[in-house]
Amino acid sequence: MTSVIFFHVFCIAFTQNFTKAGEQEAARCDTKAQLKARGCGEEEIISPNISIKPEKNVSLSKSFNQQEPVQLSPQEISLKVRPGLPITFNVSFKRVEGYPVDLYYLMDLSYSMKDDLANVKKLGESLFQALKEITEHAQIGFGAFVDKTVLPYTNTNKEKLLKPCDEEEADQQCQAAFGYRHVLSMTPSEKEFRNKVKDQYISGNLDSPEGSLDAMMQAAVCGDKIGWRNSSTRLIVLTTDAGFHMAGDGKLAGILEPNDEQCHMEGNLYIKSSEMDYPSVGQLAAQFKKHNIQPIFAVTNNMEAVYQQLSNMIPKSEVGVLSSDSGNIVQLIKDAYNRLSSKVTVTHDNLPDDVSVVYKPICKHPQPSDNEGICDNVSVGEEISFEVTVTARSCMERKSFTIRPLGIKDTLTVTLSTNCECECEVDETNHVHCREKGRVSCGICRCNDGYVGQFCECAIGDKDERSLRASCQRQNGTECENRGDCVCGRCQCHRTEQGSYFHGDFCECDDENCERFQNKLCGGNGKCNCGTCECNKDYEGSACQCKKSLEGCRTLNGSECFGRGTCKCNRCECKEGYQRPRCETCLGCPDPCLTKLRHTPPYILAMFKSFCDSLTPDCPKPPDITAIIGGSIAGVALIGLLILMLIKLLIHLNDLKEFKKFENEKKKSRWAEVRYRGSHHSQHAQQAQDFFMFYSTT
Q1: Which fold has domain 101-342?
Q2: Which of these, 340, 339, 338, 356, lies nearest to 348 by C-alpha position?
Q3: Nearby residues of 78 by Cβ (< 8 Å), 6 or more positions away
Q4: How many C-beta atoms surround the C-beta of residue 381 within 10 A?
Q5: What is the pLDDT of residues 74-113, one digit of tens each?
Q6: Residue range 516-547, CATH number
Q7: Phi and psi torsions of 671, nearest 5°
Q8: CA 70 to chain CA centroid, nearest Å
Q9: Could you tell me which residue, 476 or 139, shows the higher pLDDT?
Q10: What counts of helices (H) and strands (E) characterise the chain?
């Protein structure tokens, strides 16, 4: 059955003469009501529809009869939608009575679980009995785990690896250390389960957290070895009294390789336990969802809070508290299964980009959720439904995603396409509407080669279309500013939304985007021309917001702003340096009166006060930077020259002093020589006189 839904949304008018001169062809796209109001007939409107078409819709099964049951309907659906327009359909679900159950019992065999293992060996009969109350098609498997057999998790002494249990009890049976071991594949045989579990013994390790995440990952991804059936409720029951190691803990043992979420089982042992890190909680949750596995964490009281936090991160999981010896495990499993099976959660996978899905549960006990549809307390055989709303925000073709209930194999495949093109018939002949130079499609001309224009009226001749279009572009490269059509190398401007036209050589101007005052264009006192207000006669201002007036600019002496500014909007706009309101004072400007009459007696100043008040103080001219720099250089050179001359003078004076000293010394030396010569001559003369007198007396 195909259902088609029509909406009053944007449509296309394909009337040939629908648009007026200068009007954009985009005006053809509008609501039906608007197009009809503009004279477009119903038969001339194209409105692409949206549709919902179930491709596969097998009825829901009532009970399980060894065939593949159907619990979700429909199974395949195709949607044809308009971008941005939501489309809604319903999905039905009913849990089949007697649906098969596969339960994998995954047990912690570290030494602290010794008492629990003893009880598990006895519970085969009661466990099978409990499952048969749910379904006649039940199977049970068994697996065990401890931790990675490397330090610091396990003692790597050779003897300790072979017998890691407490040595105080010499007669106890103990198996060698191991990470994870698959013991029994899914079987409906109670006897086989009992015999396999009976052969299991306690092992041991060093630290308290165990390798439970390693074990659950392998149990989830090694489906062929575990024996999961295609059509069954898959449960993993994890029993432990300790916490768990997670991704990153492997670094303590030098294990750096991340978990690859693949099966690595040989001889029923996880062979990558000592080579690969523990999985993350996110990885484990993803694999549980992928393989429709629902975990039940049966833990001791001291670990309840830890596993409750883990359960919050793994959808469709439950936590139950074990008694000290696991004696309540059967009732715990029954209660957890009932909680899991009575809660139906619908979600989606592989959702394409730009697509959103919203769920509205239609049932007795709906639960709020952002990205899922949840119904609680749903009994077996009760039919419920979900209202699914899909919205595509962009154009796409045959994109698929799946909708599925968590923990259930059944899925709905949704194929989504958008209707983004108008289904217009194309007139293959040259049409008179296009000057017989093109064809008509949706009322718009598709021109032949060599012709351009709204009506193919322009023959480009020797020029190519690119050069013609280039003449319609400004520096930014936009053709006619996206406000017009380039026709024969010139812009034909479109109408604005208000009905006027863009104008200018490149349609760069419009008369609707000038400055506003009191929410009125140009204050209502002028007209807008290419973004600038042209004010009426008696108004001024950037938005024509002011009435022309000089009252606020008049001074006491009758001048306008003291002649030091202009009056705009009844306010003075002063020259640089002068202050409002009337440009009377100038900060930093010298007062000529005070400068010239600084030393004048006070009584004379009083006489000239009125005269001073009428003078116009002029602000000093800015300093001449060239003169300052030149004067500074000349001053430095002059000072240097004076210093050099002073030094020369001092040297000269010192030389004169030394020369005079030298002259004095020279004179002294000549006087001594004259005295010596004089005294020597007198001595000889006396001797001669004495000799002469001697001989005279003789």
Answers
A1: Rossmann fold (3.40.50)
A2: 356
A3: 51, 52, 53, 54, 55, 414, 415, 416, 417
A4: 13
A5: 999 999 998 888 999 999 999 988 899 999 999 999 888 8
A6: 2.10.25.10
A7: -60, -40
A8: 42
A9: 139
A10: 15, 37
